[in-house]
Amino acid sequence: MIETHRTLCPYCGVGCGLEVTPPAIPGRGTLRDAQGTPIWRVKGDRAHPSSLGHVCVKGATIAESLECDRLEYPMGRDRLDQPFERISWDEACDRIVAQIQTTRATLGPDGICMYGSGQLQTEDYYTAQKLLKGCLGTNNFDANSRLCMSSAVAGYTQSFGSDGPPCCYDDLETTDFAFIAGANMAECHPIAFNRLAKYHKRNRHVKMVVVDPRCTPTAEKADIHLAIKPGTDITLFNGIAYLLLKSRKIETFFIDECTRNFPAYAEVIQHYPPEVVAETCGISLGDLKKVAQWWSKSERVLSLWSMGLNQSSEGTAKVRTLINLHLMTGNIGKPGAGPFSLTGQPNAMGGREAGGLAHILPGYRSVKNPEHRAELEQAWGLPAGQIAATPGRDAWAMIQGLEQDHVGLLWVVATNPAVSMPDLKRTQAALLRSPFTICQDAYYPTETAAYAHLLLPAAQWSEKTGTMTNSERVVTLCPAFRPAPREARADWEIFAAVGRRLGFEAQFTATTAAEVHQEFTRLTAGRPCDMTGISHDRLQDFGPIQWPCPQDSEPQSHGVQLYTNASFNTPDGRAQFAAFHSRGLAEPPDPDYPFVLTVGRLYGHWHTQSRTGRIEKIVKMHPHPTLEIHPRDARTLGVNDGDWLEVRSRRGFCRFPAQVTKAIAPGTVFAPMHWGALWGDDTEANILTHAAACPTSLQPELKACAVQLFPVQGNLSSVPATAEERTLAFNPVLSQR
């Protein structure tokens, strides 16, 4: 009998189910990669409720990365200009403990920071929260959800009283009107988008609108593409609300009985007549009116958004203004309707459930709430007052702390901030100042490893057991089905080992991931994300389960919406309208920097290429980055397709070959964010971006900055093929900074 393992794709937040079988199957030859290494066979899991057997190229090729350039042993050095030397786990843990103790003595708990990732499993996240926020008394744990989803978190929390997307993927196939804003679903969430696109094609009455400055593959499928000017989202949403209010297409009973603050919102939208909105946004008046008409006539409106709204200096305001449209039309808590944020990372949801941002605690609790802190202190066997009462450092505040010599230890786990952070030159300069940086990762080299004093080899997907929660709140068990290489360990085991060495033996007694998960879910009892009815054993027997799932309840695999009773998680049970005027971009174009650069992802690659850059098929699909530019702008600059352009902002420069296309609006250019210094020369797009952030969510405005363009001579350099070659090629980059 063929051994089959059901698991979850470890890339985006869609959370597609996978079936994995060994490389060698009786009656068939061993599956091998181009180098002859046996690789596991991967296909979509037809039984998984979120993906129904479908999988994109990233999931289909995931096994090809498992043996590539792995970090296999702890490695250490005293200074960044020294080579790494192999050390034992005992020595690695001793170094960490010594640096933690030194930092606590000199800078206090606030000098200790950990920056994590949605690549972590929930058990990893939870153990890190106990170590940092509980035992060490610092809330300085943040994750790349800060760069990805924190505006959605803030929007949900302020509008509904709690985080948690209220919708599910079944809504993609029951809606009347899909309104997609700032999300290129076809490339970034392809399997979820395919469900929507097929449903839309089968049902002529179903409408689809896409709001995006680019004509993406998503926009190509839309009935109307609103190619708005960057930064005008709030103006557009308020303009739609103006038309809905003027035509009296609002649900007054729902507004009166289930919401608050509508009068203030109604006063604000009076300032957004359609003629002004169309001109400000750069769209046609007819399209604006048609979209408002479709919204008003549709019984079930589903809005979907991602980084285009979240990564903004007014990200929370954008999210809440979109949610306002649902509240004023009663489009929430029923099939096919609601505001649906599309999560970027595979377990960003699980991380938020486990407390994985600097202002929250496990079980959707707040560090500011004294009752919440007391509940965790009691559960963790810690003295009263041990958990700090103020939010910790967010990701950018960690960089600022390094600049100011206020951070003595930076622990980076399963992420690559030396490529993904904004204002990247400033970020890299701050990383150079770090007294002690730990890089805990499955792969080596990475760009961040060049700034590390200690490398810890982490077991990754397929090598450790744990759970992940996808965008629709479905929890899936991801079992280990192959051994971790050499001395690599599960992340939660590393955190627990350090905790025990620090003297917290009683807090870290779990010996399996299942025990860690059980401890975590007990803390969700009675919370909005109640998962007390979910365990590793139940997931193994039943399959994926959607929360909420309280103890003794019947598990549901999918289709569970939140707020079906129109009661929200606010003190009075009412949802809250929010009234915002648009402030526009934090850095608008001007005569010196006349273009707006927006950055994003491509279909095949994943973030900073730590995995996908090592997969031959994907590299061939996306061999190098390009800069999308409109033909009108290309003519003005005198460049043709393939000619090189230097892109300059107030912070640095990059060079890309031009991709002349009408898919980008005039005055706007687009570059992918995947290429760090390991994969190309002068291709780090986030060098150009700035660190201005939403004041509420603290999410940086990665989606827009002002740039200037210059034609230059250039050519495409080849990427070194092996880990050793990449390391040698990258070291001079570090020494020149």
Quick structural overview:
The chain is α/β, with parallel strands linked by helices and 737 residues long. 31% of the residues lie in helices and 16% in strands. The relative contact order is 0.16.
Radius of gyration: 25 Å
Q: Which class of secondary structure composition applies to the elements?
A: alpha/beta
Mean of residue pLDDT?
A: 96
**Sheet with most strands: strand arrangement:** 5-4-18-17-16-6-7
The shape is globular
Terminal Cα span: 56 Å
Strand elements, count: 28
Strand content: 15-25%
For the biggest sheet, the summary is:
7 strands, mixed
* Helix percent band: 25-40%
SS summary, helix count: 24
Unreliable residue stretches: 732-737
